[in-house]
Amino acid sequence: MSLTSESADLAQPMRTGGVYAEPSMAGVGDYIALLKPRVMSLVVFTALVGLVVAPGHLHPVLGFFALFCIAVGAGAAGALNMWYDADIDAKMARTLDRPIPAGRVQPGEALAFGIVLAGFAIVFLGLMINLLAAGLLAFTIFFYAVIYTMWLKRSTPLNIVIGGAAGAFPPVIGWAAATGSIGIEPILLFLIIFFWTPPHFWALGLGRADEYARAGIPMLPVVAGSNETRRQILIYSLVLAPVGASPWLLGYAGWPFGVVSILGGAAMVALGLRLCASEGPAVERTAKQLFTFSILYLFVLFAALLVERVLGMQGVGAPFGRVLG
Description:
CATH architecture of the largest domain: Orthogonal Bundle
Strand content: under 5%
CATH topology of the largest domain: Tetracycline Repressor, domain 2
Number of helices: 16
Number of domains: 2
CATH superfamily of the largest domain: UbiA prenyltransferase
Order of helices and strands: HHHHHHHHHHHHHHHH
Structural class: mainly alpha
Radius of gyration: 21 Å
CATH class of the largest domain: Mainly Alpha
Distance between the termini: 49 Å
Largest sheet: none
Shape: flat
Number of strands: 0
Oligomer: single chain
Helix content: over 70%
């Protein structure tokens, strides 16, 4: 699918007859925006947790370099996503001012930017850390840019469910960078983010169903309606609660994490129940509350795990180890 076939407005600067190309109007801030810095911050944080709680020892300089490569890889995936989604971004108020639909960055520039960053991150992570971490990073970028962005997002209401795997890989990559292997512990962290993603994004989508419909994106609120979306949010919240507590339940985390995970999971379920019971304007208001709280929930959950390990508060089973020190 080409961008020129999707939006005449976006295509206009590119119709040069092969003789003249519009100069880029981009500034440094526009290229930073292409990296999706808010998403990148979550990626780096969860990767950091995976890195720190892994057993063994990784030199702090190598640990920093690993996180830097993961951040650059996440930014590359964001740039490739914005390149391909420029046509639909131009139809949604939330994304209308992104660098490509706003005309500040040409699509080809964003594509080249994303490819170069992806290549840099994968190659240097493999050379400096290990091939497993580099391979996982390469797969994550491919999954987000190709499987999710180019296929799932525009073809199925399960786009967020399946595509959420891309956002769940960073702690696994961090663990692999520290150990050169994958264990049960990073898989549990993967599952937490995987089951967190649908209720998080569907809560946002409830208030933007009209925009998604206008852009032709089959998000669940568009395809199945508000009632079914709210029911699915509750179902996923009910699954997320025990999954979120699983590191403690299985003995990989201590009681502070257990307390945080149980209270946070209970709050997610309570908000899901309130959302299902809401009517009229209260639906969008409660959905926003759930969306906002879900961000806090994930951050506090991973932060609790990080603090536990830094303070040496081990689980009773097969505890996480500490990497940096």
